Amino acid sequence: MFEKFGEMGSYQEINMLAENLRKEQDYASIRALAKENGIPEEYADAYVEGEIMDLCDPMTAALGKIEVEAAELKPKEIMQDWVEYLRTQCMEREEVALRVRMKDRSLKGCMAALLSWSFKNQQPIDKGVVKAAGVTANRVTLGIPGMGRAKKIIRDYYMEGAK
Questions:
Q1: Structural domain tally of the chain?
Q2: From CA 44, how far away is CA 138, in angstroms rounded?
Q3: Using CA atoms, how far apart are residues 74 and 162, in angstroms rounded to an integer?
């Protein structure tokens, strides 16, 4: 992840590098930059052809980072729902998109915040439910946040320190 060009902390950094590469007519590197940052190939092609002025905007850069991180993390089930919520927030709120792109924020870190909450808030499961589920453990607990709580944890993680 981010092996060739390194992690970019903003859409402006991506665009600045893309502009320098375009001046050098290094179109292969522009396409590689786009791919490494999860920016669609069509955007890279349009940028190389001069059809668009910038390779990405805040939303495209944030969604690209999420895409790259999710490909590595491979979230399943409830974690996929959390990632989809984050994507939606990036599309609806530019300030979230800007924060997602920051180097000190990551999907892995966000999932860690959710997991941390889950472990701290485990609740015992009724023995009747445990028996009906066919589970033979003496004690069963569960601590998955509801979607409202998960949304708050996600927002808090990405917006921490923002003014």
A1: 2
A2: 56
A3: 28
